[in-house]
Amino acid sequence: MYTGSGFSDWEIGDITIILHEGVYHLFHLIIPNHDYIAHAVSADCLSWKRVKNALFVGDPGEWDDDMLWTMHVSKVNDRFYMYYTGLQRRDRGVVSRIGLAVSDDLMSWEKASRKGYPIEPKGIYYETAISNPRTWASFRDPFRFEHNGEAYLLLAARNIKGPVSRRGCIGLVNITNGEPQLLPPLMSPLVYDDIECPCVFTLNGKYYILGSIREDIKIRYWFAPDFLGEYHSFHADVILPQGNYAARIEQDGEHLLIYNFFYVGKIDALRVLPPPKQLDTDARGRLLLKSYYRWDMMAVKIILQKNIIDVFSLFNNPTASFEIQDDKWICSSRSGYEIFCFKKPAQNYIWEGLLTVEGMGKLGLVTEMDKDGYGYFISFDVMNGFVQIRSWGFNPQNVKQNFIFSDIQSGFFTPPKEKEPIHFRLISYGNYIELSINGVVKLTLMDYTYSGDYIGLYSASSVISLQNTLLKTLPALQEEYASQEEAKKLE
Known about the structure:
Layout: E1 12-20, E2 23-30, E3 36-42, E4 49-50, E5 55-56, E6 67-76, E7 79-87, E8 97-103, E9 110-111, E10 139-147, E11 150-158, E12 168-174, E13 181-187, E14 196-203, E15 206-213, E16 218-224, E17 238-240, E18 244-252, E19 255-263, E20 271-272, E21 277-281, E22 287-290, H1 294-298, E23 301-304, E24 312-313, E25 320-325, E26 328-343, E27 349-357, E28 362-369, E29 375-381, E30 386-394, E31 403-412, E32 422-429, E33 432-437, E34 440-446, E35 454-473, H2 485-488
Antiparallel strand pairs: 1-2, 2-3, 3-4, 3-5, 6-7, 7-8, 8-9, 10-11, 11-12, 12-13, 14-15, 15-16, 16-17, 18-19, 19-20, 19-21, 21-22, 23-35, 24-26, 25-26, 26-35, 27-32, 27-35, 28-29, 28-35, 29-30, 30-31, 32-33, 33-34
């Protein structure tokens, strides 16, 4: 896990990641100053080490002498190009522009001085410094994409006309012939104030655009049969749930990975780079979020369900019962709650199994639980296909509201048929929590509230059974601020 934190707990901003010769290179903004673009490296996308900073704001009077905003790094022929966003002090950052830096090795960067740069809106299709009702114009967050031998930049831009809070669009620039040429927007949904950090990719015969939406801090997607075609939405268009932001993609062998940072709590609180996920589609072309392929490669030890022998009832509810029947556990509570838990096998683990609802009522998983029943509750509404995680416990700081009851994140899944099992996979790695249902990631978040010793299931007026449990222990996290000597091995 990576935060980039120093004096502040929320220094990491928008990101880009490129894989080169087996090393993942992360470039990210430094919040709130925006005065340089940081660089970190990793062998697995889980443990990161900082290396030489990539780029700094320009000297006074230069076009990028105020702030640096979102960037994108890609390989072009034998060099690396970084398209980045810059702001200028003399215009008070009213309009953002796009510049270019180049590198031979991803470590040393030089700002390029070329005709047409920095790229800025000209008032034909997009808001400019003098034509923007918000008093600041978005023309930023570049993403380079090649299509049919031509190169394009996608941008977070704003239409020059329309309702002020709905002008957010995906701007488009053609850069094939050297000098950038502004084109009409690639997509204008007429819904959002901005579509931040756009990126585009092909997967299983379709083109997809990802965009981060400030209104609800979610990542949405659109699809089209062709890159320059008409983009559409499915009935559900959220690919990463609330709290995840600024997503970018990178091909890793046969896996298409999606990265983002996560807001822990409010927007100006701790920001963290969680582990990546993988993108896939279903038969209809809807995007699916899959768990990172490296998790199973990391497993240190595997524990079977029959070898978990220390299960106990936490609340001693007299209407509750726990039974081991052949190859499954049967947990029930006729009235009220009961938690059936056991000690987690390691600080970091993967827990998966088949969960079947044998009767009506409330049910779910618990993790990071203590002996007072304080921890994370993951509730399953199998009738409506709704899953939600909340932190739930005692709040000693406020005697008038002496509880913590915070809904952190939620998602939807296809409801099972009656008494049809669902496969769950819960990953707990440091303060990262990920839940997959039937192979699709539905919850992915960071939270620092609880770190108890127990995991398990809960029942409230329900009967549930658990089969085919596997517990996989994961290695300890590497300290982010460990000696930089380790990082030099990856340079």
